[in-house]
Amino acid sequence: MILEAWKGALGLIARSRGEALSYVAATVFGGWFYILVCGALGVAEPYSVNQAVKAAPGLTLIAYLPGMLVGAWFGAGLAGRMIMHALGGSAERMTFYVGKWFGRKLRWDLFFMLVMFLPVPVLVMVPAGLLFAIPWMLAALWLGVRFALWLNISVEGDLPLIESLKRSFTVTEGRFFQLLFITALPMGALRSLHWLVSKAAPGEVVLFYLKFLFDGMGYALVLGALAFFYARLSSPAEGTAS
What is the DSSP code (8-state) at residue 93? Predict the structure, then answer.
């Protein structure tokens, strides 16, 4: 099922290749926007995100917001099209899904970043903070996987965010490791590729934008894989597939 999901994701991306390319380009553009805002806010070492977060977590978060807006806009549109294609329906234009799901996706992305991940760099800076940071990250990972199908559920039934999150938590019971591999391995592979490229010392600026490029590619693949996985769960013939 895991390999099928990745193969299915490539097929879905091919069917919406223009939108997928737009999403990846928007992700890179979001990185450029982050640098601009960091410069306006006076955030030191913006190309080193970890250093920027440690030095000024609040300002760094603010600098990320414009890029998050762009990514959520294009992400909602691309996800909506791939979900409908996966479910066998007729996909609308990208803007249709943006109009309905941009706000929901942005709210969830912001909440997840604020509650789940932003405290981690703060925790590691305090004495014994690592003892709390590791369990926090593991809890964030578990919840992120259990809620991973919320957008698919919301698009299929036009459900509000909270109801979609509840249903995702129910649907993903017993499927944690399947979804973990489906979502984590593509991102891990592209992060590894980024690390290998860094060994060639192309420069801090190039590595910064390559990271956003690879992240955009990885997230597009994950959106497609989740759409395919959810469609298989929703199909009467495949709903119990493991």
Answer: -
Q: Position of tokens 């909506």? A: 80
Question: Quick check: 184 and 221 in contact, CB under 8 A?
Answer: no
Residue 239, domain member (yes or no):
no
pLDDT 10s digits, 133-188: 778 888 888 999 999 999 999 999 999 999 999 999 999 999 999 999 999 888 88
Number of structural domains (the chain) is 1
Which residues of the chain register pLDDT less than 70?
117-118, 120-130, 236-242
Q: For tokens 């991306």, name the residue.
A: 13
pLDDT in the model for residue 239: 38
Q: What is the predicted pLDDT for the residue at 240?
A: 34
Question: Where do runs of H (alpha helix) occur along the chain?
Answer: 2-15, 17-41, 49-55, 57-86, 94-111, 119-123, 130-146, 150-157, 161-171, 176-198, 204-234
The Cα 16–Cα 204 span in angstroms is 32
Q: Which domain holds residue 62?
A: 2-234
Whether residue 240 lies inside any domain: the answer is: no
Four-point Cα dihedral 140, 6, 185, 141, nearest 10: 10
> Which residues lie closer than 8 Å to 67 by C-beta, 6 or more apart?
27, 29, 30, 31, 33, 34
Is 242 domain-assigned?
no
